[in-house]
Amino acid sequence: MRKPIIGGNWKMNRGTPQEAKDMLERLVPLVKDIDTVDIVIAAPFTVLVTLYDTLSNTNIKIGAQNMYFEEKGAFTGEISPIFLKDIGVEYVILGHSERRDIFKESDALINKKIKKALAMDLKPIVCIGEHLEEREANKTTEIIKYQINETFKDLDKDEMSNIIIAYEPIWAIGTGKTATPEQAEEIHVFIRKLLDQKFDRETADSIRIQYGGSINAKNAEDLFNKENIDGGLVGGASLQSDSLFQIIKAADKSIK
Ligand code: PGA
Q1: Ligand 1 centroid to residue 234 C-alpha, Å
Q2: How much distance in Å is there from the Cα of 166 to the middle of ligand 1?
């Protein structure tokens, strides 16, 4: 039985301590009795300390949206996993399509970051997904296979057990065009098949695979009811406590 995980990815949208605090102070009481779903907020670096202050002794975990694969040194503008650990960060989103497309992060770089995160005991939420042109050219499975092989290169089964995969079709991110539950489920099943081939059945069955891309309070339930969808990575709808709470409740309901 996989525990669903809901990640709120605030992107570059909630970066002042006051707005972060306001949102979280509304969310904390709403979700305090939910123990069937892991809840993570991945916030900009500037408010991670605010999350640390606001979320200690709650059931909401702290996530970062990126990190570098070195611990220290002359890497202007980068963030060390040590700094993240020190302020209570437990999860880190790696390989988000915005990092891949806008900031030109390669699968090889993402692979290095995943290895470092695991070595530092941070849990990577690794994003994979195809562009619209790739889907239209029937290349979705080819792209997913390539990304799985490259981003998880040289990782073993134990390491994989600490990873969360987020399948995020890029055409569905921030566009209001959600993948249908059937489209998402089909790729989630395919990802498990690849994990079985690359690692083993146990790894494939136990890894949590989130869906991401225009999840909202209305479509969440149908997505999470699919057998292979273990929660979601939520962008826009994670900015308001009410909509995020509805999505968390949908994940809670999906296991009952
Ligand atoms: P969205 O973003 O929910 O706003 O589509 C999802 C994501 O990019 O993780």
Answers
A1: 5
A2: 11
Residue whose CA lies nearest to ligand 1 atom number 1: 235
At 256, the pLDDT band (50, 70, 90 cuts) reads: low
**Domains annotated on the chain, with CATH:** 5-253 (3.20.20.70)
132: enclosing H helix or E strand? helix 132-136
Distances (CA, A) of 171 to 116, 130, 132, 176: 29, 8, 5, 9
Contact 194, 148 (CB under 8 A): yes
Q: Hey, which residues are catalytic here?
A: 96, 168
Q: How far apart are CA 45 and CA 51, in angstroms?
A: 10
Q: What share of the chain is helix, strand, coil (3-state, %, to 5)?
A: 45, 15, 40
Ligand 1: which residue has its CA nearest to atom 7?
235
Look up residue 172 and give its amino acid: A
Residue nearest to atom 3 of ligand 1 (CA): 235
- 163's tokens: 């990873």
Residues lining ligand 1, Cβ inside 6 A = 9, 168, 173-174, 212-215, 233-237
Q: List residues bridging with 9 in a β-sheet.
A: 42
Spatial distance between the Cα atoms of 61 and 55, rounded to a whole number of angstroms? 7
- pLDDT-based confidence at residue 177 (cuts at 50, 70, 90): confident
